[in-house]
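Deliverable D2.4 — example input (structure tokens):
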């Protein structure tokens, strides 16, 4: 065991953490990245095999490392993102300590061994790193959420969270129930159905959008036209719940596809209501399939009208909206109040019920009463504490890879300002503008 010093410790070796370290490297500063698994852990090891990134390849870019492939409008496999991130780390000379967990971050610290240290980072292996700055790049989706109702399901049924689903062949034979209709739930349902499995999808609140609209990617419109009120907000119909929602349901499969409850129903997926209870082999459902599908259709209509209004207000010359059929509620049927797992040969339940943030390693003073970070645009409430990969101003758009670079460069500039003012005259701050 020993104590070392790093000017900046970045906790998390995913796209956000490595991008902050890369942005600092461009400015002449070295950071130590600490990662519990491997570089790009979530992309490399915590996604299903067929998953492709939901945003175009051109958005998979890091500070001073633009996409350089030959398919900018395509959608790369998840594991390719991890590979590109690893190449970026090597090229930028970023120091990453893999397979190392952080036990806690202490602030303030007494009797610091290194001048200027404000934090003491205690590692699982017993080592200690003192640091002036800490960047928590843990993301908002760090801990799988499985509802309490899962405990009431018969033990003969295999249960797993979406994080641990890999492919249809890895599941027991029989039908599969997916609980949750967000991005993961609908994409996994599509993956299993295309493999010939009988699939049931228990619906829940979500948002949908067309992959392309009026000559551009829908995510481009959201990023460029609606930065303040882009309708991809962290409320997501969940009120004050700490469970973070995802962006609109889309698929990167086969060059990018739309995905929705009607599309899945047409492919043979059986839609059932939201799960409200479990009594062994029978689930208690809310009879709300049609209501949930209608709400998603209404939100999509609201989104497209907002984009149309922004286009008109700015006088942009773009193609007219393609005529699309109105949502037909007759395509969706309510299922009823119960689902008999045995009678329907359902042997597996996949809980696509989201994630919750886990920032318990940080000082209590940095968190609110729910254990969530208190921050403004990535700046924490403690001096020298920063965040990367969190929603900003209620929007979850900053969680997309496309926003990683801007977030990282902003955090790096703040760290540069602190370092400059410590070691040089206050007049030197003027040089940071160039």
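Example output (designed residues):
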């Amino acid at each position: 065991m020993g104590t070392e010093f790093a000017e900046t410790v970045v906790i998390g070796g995913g796209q956000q953490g490595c991008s902050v370290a890369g942005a600092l490297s461009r400015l002449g500063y070295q950071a130590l990245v600490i990662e519990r698994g491997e570089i790009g852990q979530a992309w490399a090891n915590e996604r299903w095999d067929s998953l492709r990134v939901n945003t175009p390849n051109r958005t998979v870019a890091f500070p001073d490392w633009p996409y350089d492939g030959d398919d900018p409008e395509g959608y790369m496999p998840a594991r390719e993102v991890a590979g590109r991130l690893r190449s970026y780390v090597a090229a930028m000379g970023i120091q990453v300590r893999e397979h190392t967990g952080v036990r806690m971050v202490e602030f303030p610290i007494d009797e610091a061994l290194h001048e200027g240290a404000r934090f003491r980072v205690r590692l699982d292996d017993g080592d200690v790193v003192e640091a002036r700055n800490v960047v928590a790049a843990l993301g908002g989706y760090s801990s799988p959420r499985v509802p309490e109702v899962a405990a009431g399901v018969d033990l003969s049924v295999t249960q797993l969270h979406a994080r641990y689903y890999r492919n249809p062949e890895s599941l027991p034979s029989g039908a599969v129930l997916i609980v949750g209709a967000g991005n993961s739930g609908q994409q996994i349902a599509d993956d299993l159905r295309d493999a010939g499995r009988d699939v049931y999808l228990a619906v829940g609140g979500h948002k949908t959008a067309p992959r392309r609209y009026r000559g551009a990617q829908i995510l481009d419109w959201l990023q460029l036209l609606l930065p303040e009120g882009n309708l991809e907000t962290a409320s997501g119909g969940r009120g004050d719940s700490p469970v973070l929602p995802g962006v609109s349901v889309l698929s990167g499969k086969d060059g990018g596809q739309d995905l929705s409850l009607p599309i899945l129903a047409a492919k043979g997926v059986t839609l059932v209501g939201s799960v409200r209870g479990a009594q062994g082999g029978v689930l208690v459902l809310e009879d709300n399939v049609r209501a949930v599908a209608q709400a998603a259709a209404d939100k999509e209509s609201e989104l497209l009208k907002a984009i149309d209004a922004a286009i008109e207000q700015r006088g942009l010359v773009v193609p007219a909206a393609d005529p699309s059929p109105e949502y037909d509620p007759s395509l969706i049927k309510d299922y009823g109040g119960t689902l008999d797992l045995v009678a329907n040969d359902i042997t597996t339940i996949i809980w696509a019920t989201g994630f919750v943030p886990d920032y318990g390693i940080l000082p209590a003073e940095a968190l609110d009463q729910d254990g969530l970070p208190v921050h403004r645009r990535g700046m924490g409430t403690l001096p020298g504490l920063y965040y990367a990969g969190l929603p900003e101003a209620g929007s979850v758009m900053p969680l997309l890879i496309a926003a990683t670079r801007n977030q990282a460069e902003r955090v790096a500039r703040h760290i540069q300002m602190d370092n400059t003012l410590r070691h040089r005259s206050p007049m030197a701050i003027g040089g940071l503008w160039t």
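The chain has two domains: 3-142+357-430, 145-355.
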